[in-house]
Structure of MAPEG family protein:
Amino acid sequence: MHSSLLLTGFYGGILAILYIALTFKVIGLRKKHSVGIGDGENSELAKAIRIHGNFSEYVPIALILFAAFELNGGSAQMLHLLGGLLVTARFLHAIGLGKSTGTSWQRFSGTVATFIVLLILAVCNILAMF
């Protein structure tokens, strides 16, 4: 069993850097379009806000599940696989939604990969009880 959360910290750190980048994108667009709150009916800003919001909706639960899996002795190989997949998924989702509010392969793939990571971690953590 792992006595620390080194891998959770590593992937959490990478994801935090991506989160900051997404935040600065929103701040820059707010400044560019003089919008203090909301999206000012600006589609570019609305997309950036949703990309940032979607990230903040899914990543925290993934990191909680990741930490629980690591603390419960999850294999480092599985943690790296899932961590790498989650980072890739969130990049793809941001790129895809940034390109279009419609469907894109990046948005779709990022969403599906995020759900796969969540589902695997959820099942692994539930099974750890038995």
